[in-house]
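User: I'm putting together a small comparison set for a docking exercise, and I want a reference complex before I start. The sequence is below, and the ligand is copper (II) ion. Could you produce the 3D structure with the ligand included, as structure tokens?
Assistant: Of course. I'll restate your input first, then give the structure tokens for the complex.
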Amino acid sequence: MKSKQIWAMVAALGLAGCNTGTTEEAVTEAPACIPGIEVTGGWMAMGAIPGDPAAVYFSIANNDSTNHMIRAAAVDGAASAMIHQMGTWSLQPSMDEVMQLDIPAGETLVFEPGTYHVMAMEPGEQLAPGGQTHVTLTFVGGDTCTFPVEIHAAGDEPHHAE
Ligand SMILES: [Cu+2]
């Protein structure tokens, strides 16, 4: 049961990554997600300056028997959103837009600082630290997954217990 082991590990990471203790229930009960896809630990890091892009992080598990490919993201309260991957070849932070992102059957992909994130462009005033919003991922074929994210101020990241 390799996939179960991966899932258990990610679930534990999700718990450790949230020091407010308020999100796990809500995130587990995502309002609308296709069967087999499970998103946990969703949070948003606001930019340092109001109006700067915000970044959204989460774990997405594909417990289905088929692959699912993310092709778009939308963030409630932001003008637009895109999937980014941080470049790792340079000391300077750089981001590349990811047009399609495959989540293989039985695997989990973790969006976290330094790797993948959903970048929310032109976040509106309703996106305030301490609040919550929703993110919708659209998969190739048209299926979607909508899940809640907790909003954090710049620099106020939910730290892993280390
Ligand atoms: Cu980005």
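DSSP finds two helices and eleven strands in the chain. The chain has one domain: 2-152.
User: Thanks, that's exactly what I needed.
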